[in-house]
Write a structure and sequence with these properties.
single chain, alpha+beta, FAD/NAD(P)-binding domain, nine-stranded mixed β-sheet, eight-stranded mixed β-sheet, 12 helices, 31% strand, FAD-bd, FAD
């Protein structure tokens, strides 16, 4: 394959979703798509207690439903029926309920391995080819696209190169695309835990003096824990034995789900707001964490990336020009600018608001949460943000 219309660098969830969104239109147009991925996909799915997961908003569920993938995903998707937002030691709290919003669920929690399995199985090999395991070492700009130099000494030319290779994209750096990097001085500790009481589809966002704590419902009555702490203290928590860790978690969260009985493998990630200063160039687009990486507090990172992905696919398929046309890519960027600004701004402001311990602001937060629970219009607006419906009309 000397030249293809689209080369997607990164065959993870974002890259595979773009290939799926383009698949039918590419087949009709005779386009060829290549996914380049260093880690072999397609291994048979095996349930794991420690499986990493993603919170899919209601808007994301509708996108996957539109792409025909939701029936497969739904087999292992745990619905979020209620979100309880509170601050430790304060009286204010807000409760968002799917029933009040007239939807079957506010969102769903899905294991990444299962989501990947569903995506990979849905791709048509006659349209979407894999180069895997393979890695792009460097990229050379051509008049009509890019030449990708792979680690096996081969090369591939494409009309459009899409970088979906993560927040630490080396290719982005080598292309001279600068990023705005604002560290939060925090790290997220990720693990799965099992409570003694049924979670009943409840998700919890608990703000504490030391950082926010989120619990999301998973299958088999597990909960996905996202615990944000100052970087040094997060390292201390990582080193605790299981009994000590669960004891501290219980003190911070309380007993709304009874006692925590089991803890899975813990992972630690430094947190920062990262935004690429350029998301498109002629014959080039950035998606996913390569374009923007958000704080996990509001659970909007992957959902925003999927909205970007669908919008890019729509613009490429609506244009009479071949993929890579700069005017087409600029239209995509213009369409998604407001969504990105609002989502990134919402996530960043919530993070910084709840990170301060100033008494007046703390009191204001409590009143805000109480008012949110008592004022239906405000609660409905907040719920739409959480469901991924507040910044873009879903089809």
């Amino acid at each position: 394959m000397a030249r293809v219309e689209l080369a997607i660098v990164g065959g993870g969830l974002v890259g595979a979703s773009l290939a799926l969104a383009l698949q039918d239109g590419a087949r009709a147009r005779g386009w060829r798509i290549v996914l380049i991925e260093p880690h072999a996909p397609g291994e048979p799915y095996q349930p794991s207690y420690d499986a990493r997961c993603s919170a899919l908003s209601f808007g994301t569920q509708r996108i996957y439903e539109r792409l025909g993938l939701w029936p497969a995903i739904a087999r292992r998707a745990e619905p979020i029926l209620q979100i309880h937002v509170s601050e430790r030691g304060r009286f204010g709290a807000a409760r968002l309920r799917a029933l009040e919003e007239g939807v079957p669920a506010l969102g769903y929690v899905v294991e990444n391995a299962w989501l990947g399995e569903c995506l990979w199985q849905a791709l048509d090999s006659s349209v979407v080819a894999w180069r895997c395991p393979a890695e792009v070492q460097r990229m050379t700009s051509l008049d009509d696209g890019y030449r990708l130099h792979l680690d096996d000494d081969s090369h591939l030319d494409c009309a459009l190169a899409v970088l979906a290779d993560g927040g630490r994209s080396e290719l982005r750096e080598r292309l001279g695309i600068h990023v705005r990097h604002r560290p939060y001085g925090q790290a997220a500790l990720i693990a799965n835990v099992t409570p003694s009481e049924p979670h009943r589809g409840q998700a919890f966002e608990r703000f504490t003096q030391d950082g926010p704590l989120a619990l999301l419902p998973l299958a088999e009555n597990r909960c996905a824990l996202v615990w944000t702490r100052q970087t040094g203290d997060a390292g201390r928590l990582l080193a605790l034995d299981e009994r000590q860790f669960l004891c501290e978690l219980q003190q911070q969260f309380g007993y709304r789900l009874g006692a925590f009985r089991h803890l899975g493998t813990r992972h630690l990630y430094a947190l920062a707001l990262v935004e690429a200063e350029e998301q498109v160039r002629p014959h080039l687009a950035l998606l996913g964490n390569a374009a923007h990486s958000l704080h996990p507090i509001a659970g909007q990172g992957y959902n925003l990336s999927l909205r970007d992905t669908l919008c890019l696919a729509e613009e490429l398929l609506a244009s009479p020009a071949e993929p890579g046309d700069f005017a087409t890519l600029l239209r995509y960027q213009a369409r998604q600018r407001l969504d990105q600004q609002l989502t990134v701004g919402f996530s960043d402001r919530v993070t910084r608001l709840f990170a301060t311990a100033m008494p007046l602001l703390a009191d204001g937060r409590s009143l805000g949460l109480l008012g949110l629970d008592l004022l239906p219009p405000a609660k409905h607006w907040f719920a739409r943000q959480a469901m991924g419906l507040g910044t873009r009309v879903q089809a």
